[in-house]
């Protein structure tokens, strides 16, 4: 059911949102004329298979500097900050869902450097198809603001956030629920919180 849901609604989403996608692409091209409209990067997908994620560009040079982004990051352009605030930069990922690289709900796809650190039972989350949203994404929906408050964002991400996301995603793997997936999608769109696995996300 999830496989059919993903592909059906990814196609519908691309069709319905095509005017918004086109306008956003044109604005990026006008406001960032020297940068490509889309940002494509290699990520780790289901069973460790690599794929190229597609997002709207929000930075001057997303390949440079730390892989961790904090609020106020100098690399983020003014239009990029607006796109990130409303998650519009992730709309092109509907294409990744349509072709089967991603799902609507699942762990956010990591770059190879992070996925390679998974050991033991933690590696089981690679059995999941990565998602546009998911329980860990919802819990840390304000991640960039959180990282901006700590002294060493990279270390805090590596030692606190990443392990907690792995824990949450392992819980998600062992407690599959299509209705919960729908609830997570709605929570992402309408920005509400609810209890999941004994904690608020």
Q: Can you count the helices? A: 9
Q: Main sheet?
A: 2 strands, antiparallel
The total number of structural domains is: 1
- The chain-level mean pLDDT equals 93
Cα shape: globular
Strand order of the largest sheet: 1-2
**Strand residue content:** 5-15%
Q: For the terminal residues, how far apart are their CA atoms?
A: 25 Å
Instruction: Show unreliable segments.
Output: none
Order of helices and strands: HHEEHHEHEHHHHEE
User: How many beta-strand runs?
Assistant: 6
Rounded to an integer in angstroms, the radius of gyration calculated over CA atoms is 16 Å
Summarize the amount of helix as a percent range: 40-55%
Structural class: alpha+beta
Q: What's the short version?
A:
The protein is an alpha+beta fold and 201 residues long.
Detailed description of the structure:
A hairpin with a 5-residue loop joins strand 1 (38-44) and strand 2. The chain has helices at 2-16, 18-31, 78-85, 93-98, 112-115, 135-139, 143-147, 153-174, 178-190, and strands at 38-44, 50-56, 103-105, 131-133, 195-196, 199-200. By secondary structure, it is α+β, with helices and mostly antiparallel strands. It has one domain. The mean pLDDT is 93. The strands form 3 sheets. Strands 1-2 form a two-stranded antiparallel ribbon.
Topology:
Elements: H1 2-16, H2 18-31, E1 38-44, E2 50-56, H3 78-85, H4 93-98, E3 103-105, H5 112-115, E4 131-133, H6 135-139, H7 143-147, H8 153-174, H9 178-190, E5 195-196, E6 199-200
What attributes does this structure have?
two-stranded antiparallel sheet, two-stranded parallel ribbon, alpha+beta, 12% strand, 201 residues
